[in-house]
Amino acid sequence: MKKEFSARPEALPEPMLRGGKVSWHEFVTAIPEPVFLVTGWKKNGKENACLQSWATFGGSGPDDFVCIMTKVSRHGHMYRSLKKTGVCVLNFPSHDIFDRCIKTIGNNAFETDEITAAGLTAERAAKVNAPRIKECFLNIECKFLWAHKLCGGCGDLAVAVKAVNICMDSDRYDQSRLGRYGKTGYQYQFHGPFNPETEEMTDWGGNAAVTFEPVDPIPWITK
Ligand SMILES: Cc1cc2nc3c(=O)[nH]c(=O)nc-3n(C[C@H](O)[C@H](O)[C@H](O)COP(=O)(O)O)c2cc1C
Question: What is the mean pLDDT of residues 138-148?
């Protein structure tokens, strides 16, 4: 049975508060989004790495592959670096290196080389002036397109970047080998899942992350 949920509960459970920065609808829908690290140079020349998962990808033509990061702090190192250099790299980790990716959050000081401090390897991107992460199976090198205020009164921005180069592990783009999905492929994260009726949150004992397996294809019979 489907039910309507527009008014949020008066007292939100602690994990949903997060400094008031995440919508309660996000916990109810618990829609998974792809996890990647945005890398660039800080203005002091040190490596910056920022985990990002509010994002979507698409394009309007054969040469336009655009990523819209739907929630970027205008005060964070990532946005400052992107504005200054005009470029960044989107690095996609698989599950086995995610523990190191998380360490970029605790090694976020201005003076820190964040990729190296997290136990990952920084290498130079091929087509843009930014570092990229060697251990990530996919690196998308990008240039800055635009930034817009996400919504009235909020400090966050929606930021678009356009791909200029892709570097990808051959075992991932060969679907008969590791491929792009399952435990060795893309990772997704979500907030929740929250039951809006019982107000219970499912606790999986850590930050929620999932990987996907392909299912049997459904033929597109549109009529
Ligand atoms: C899995 C995961 C996904 C995240 N996604 C985002 C995101 O989409 N937008 C955001 O502003 N912060 C996100 N964060 C938090 C930032 O990664 C974190 O605040 C980071 O330290 C900011 O880095 P910066 O100061 O280099 O910009 C995420 C954190 C994790 C663990």
Answer: 98
In three-state secondary structure terms, 53 is coil
Contacts 24+ apart (CB under 8 A), 110-113: 110/42, 110/44, 110/46, 110/77, 111/44, 111/46, 112/46, 113/46, 113/47
**What is the rounded distance in angstroms from the CA atom of residue 27 to the CA atom of residue 15?**
10
Comparing CA positions, the residue from 60, 135, 56 lying closest to residue 95 is 135
Pocket of ligand 1 from Cβ distances under 6 Å:
35, 48, 50-54, 71-73, 76-78, 102, 105, 108, 189
State how far the Cα of 118 lies from the Cα of 121, in Å rounded to an integer: 9
CA of 51 to the centre of ligand 1 (A): 4
pLDDT score at 130: 98
Q: Report the atom number in ligand 1 closest to the C-alpha of 48.
A: 26
Please report which confidence band the pLDDT of residue 40 belongs to, taking 50, 70 and 90 as the band edges.
Answer: very high
Average pLDDT over residues 153-158: 87
Q: For the segment 161-216, what is each residue's pLDDT rounded down to a tens digit? A: 999 999 999 999 999 999 999 999 999 998 888 899 988 888 877 677 889 998 99
Report CA(29)–ligand 1 centroid distance (Å).
20
